[in-house]
Structures are given as C-alpha cells and as structure tokens.
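ARCHIVE CARD
CATEGORY: sequence design from structure
SOURCE FIELD: tokenized fold
FIELD CONTENT:
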C-alpha cells in the first residue's frame, strides 16, 4: 500500500499535550479525527515503536513518524454528470446545483448524485477525507432546492469549512416564493426543529426536544392586491442549519413554499376573480418543486485566508414563476 511518511518533533512548549492534539497541530492538513484514526491503525511510531494510545503525553524531543496511506478509492463510483462549476481550486469546489439532483447517495438514490458527479469531475484532486478519496460535503441542499453548495477536497478544507458552518459564520441567503405574505415585512422565526411525532418523514417545530433553529426573513415583493396578497417573494438567511429549516419555519409562520408537496399540501389559495389571476394561480399550483433557491454563499477560504462570496441567478423555472405572479400586480 502506498503512502507518505511524515515526522513531527515535540518542543518544550508541546510538553504534556495529548499525542493526537499535538500531531493535529503539527500536521495541520490532517484533522484530529483523521490523526486518531491513524493512531488506532498503528500508523504512528516513536523511535520505531508503534503508539496506539491517542492520550499518550508528549515529551520535549520526541520525534513521531506518521505513515499516511494513499486515499482509498471512494465507495460511490464517479459518474459523468454535468456540473455548473462556479469556482474551483486545490482545496474546494463551489457548485450551482440544479433542482432534481440529490446531493449524497442514500437509500432510494444509490447513484446519480452530486457526490458521484464530484468524484468523476475532481479525479486526482481529491486528496482524501478520512482516508477515502471523496468530496467533503459540509452542508446539503434538498433534492428539489436549487443553488450554491461548497464541497471540500481535502482534510484541511473540510475541517475549516465544517467549523465555519458549526459557528454560523457562513453567509447563506435563499429566495423563496410562498403562499400569501407575512404581515411583518421582516422578522425572525425561532423554533426547535425535530422529527414530526405524527409523520417521521417530515420535520416540524416542536414544543420540546428538537434542535434550536433560527431563520431571518424579509419580504422582497408581494403579489396581488388587497390585505391578503396571493403570494410573495421572500429572502431567508440561515442562522442555523437544520433539515428542511426554511421549509418548516415558513410553514410554521403560515406561509408554506409554493410547490412544496411535503409541507404545503394543506394550503388553499383564494379563488381567481380574473383571467390574469387564474393564469397566475395555475402557474403557481403546477410548480413542480418547492420554490426555493440558494442564491448567495460566502465563507472564509481555508488556505487563502480571504472571504469568498458567490451569487447564483434564478433558474428558468423560478424566473417564470415570479414573472407569472408579477402579472397580478400589473392588473391591480
């Protein structure tokens, strides 16, 4: 099995540190979890003696050798699936994901996913996450949500991006088209999100349990006249990242996403009074997916140490929906 040997020498300032913590600092391109994995597998030695205790305390002058095997082939096979690449370098890749593309292989979607596409596209530039040549998925978009997504190519980038997402320092903004319009032009939706106790396939806002979730929203445009607009265009910014967070929070607010078959079934739009309203209503009712697009993504680059910020234009179906709904305002 191929690989490379790395060495790290402890100094006075390192004295007393755990071995895994010391090596994760000395070999910054490897995560602490990966170091622990290598220690457990017998890949770390001192003076020819293998050390398998991650809690081993470092002494000044200790010289450790770490054998890092070449990354194993990825379990998912690479597939030649077209990708809209917004940005790419040796550390990461930013994709503008189309609606309909699943991010990660799972039951019901064993292949044909974004991960399969990234493995084929990135090839040898994938340096391995946890010892496997695969892209590091640090956040996901639902299958039918379009927009920007970043994936890591190596351990260092994965660790940095995962920390930024965990600390909520990544800038993420979405555009959503919802039934009706919130009375307040902007605000914050807060509520614990967890599995719906009556339907395990859905998430919901729970009175107890679940995970803290916060979504900031702002109404950009209302469609239809009167005190109860037919629909509205909203910008959402995530302060946490929970499963289906925007979809669940806007439904909880009373304004589910147009096209959301999971959370918007119970919504009943008003009756059409004019041919123009009928056309707009039919367009909205026939929209084939949740009307949600991740248009903005900003984060600190793991090695360039500068902020990268990307924007994605609306896809054609989203533009068509908004155009049809704007027709209501022209008739008012």
């Amino acid at each position: 099995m191929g690989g490379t040997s790395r060495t790290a020498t402890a100094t006075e300032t390192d004295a007393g540190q755990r071995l895994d913590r010391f090596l994760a600092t000395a070999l910054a391109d490897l995560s602490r979890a990966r170091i622990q994995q290598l220690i457990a597998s017998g890949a770390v030695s001192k003076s020819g003696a293998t050390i398998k205790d991650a809690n081993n305390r470092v002494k000044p002058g200790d010289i450790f050798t770490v054998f890092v095997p070449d990354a194993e082939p990825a379990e998912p096979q690479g597939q030649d699936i077209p990708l809209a690449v917004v940005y790419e370098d040796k550390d990461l890749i930013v994709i503008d994901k189309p609606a309909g593309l699943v991010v990660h292989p799972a039951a019901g979607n064993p292949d044909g996913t974004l991960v399969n596409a990234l493995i084929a596209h990135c090839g040898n530039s994938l340096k391995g996450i946890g010892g496997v040549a695969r892209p590091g998925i640090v956040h996901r978009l639902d299958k039918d949500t379009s927009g920007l997504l970043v994936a890591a190519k190596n351990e260092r980038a994965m660790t940095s991006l995962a920390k930024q997402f965990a600390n909520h320092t990544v800038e993420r903004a979405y555009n959503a088209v919802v039934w009706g319009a919130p009375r307040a032009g902007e605000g914050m939706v807060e509520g614990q999100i967890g599995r719906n106790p009556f339907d395990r396939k859905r998430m919901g806002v729970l009175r107890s349990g679940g995970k803290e979730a916060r979504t900031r929203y702002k109404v950009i445009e209302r469609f239809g006249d009167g005190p109860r607009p037919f629909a509205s265009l909203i910008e959402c910014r995530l302060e946490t990242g929970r499963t289906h967070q925007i979809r669940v929070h806007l439904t909880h607010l009373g304004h589910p996403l147009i096209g959301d078959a999971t959370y918007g079934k119970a919504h009943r739009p008003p009756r059409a009074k004019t041919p123009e309203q009928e056309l707009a209503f039919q367009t909205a009712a026939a929209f084939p997916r949740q009307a949600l697009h991740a248009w903005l993504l900003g984060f600190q680059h793991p090695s360039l140490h500068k902020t990268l910020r990307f924007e994605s234009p609306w896809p054609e179906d989203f533009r068509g929906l908004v155009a049809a709904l704007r027709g209501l305002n022209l008739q008012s």
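CARD ANNOTATION: The chain has a mean pLDDT of 86. The longest strand covers residues 214-223.
SHELF: design records, drawer C
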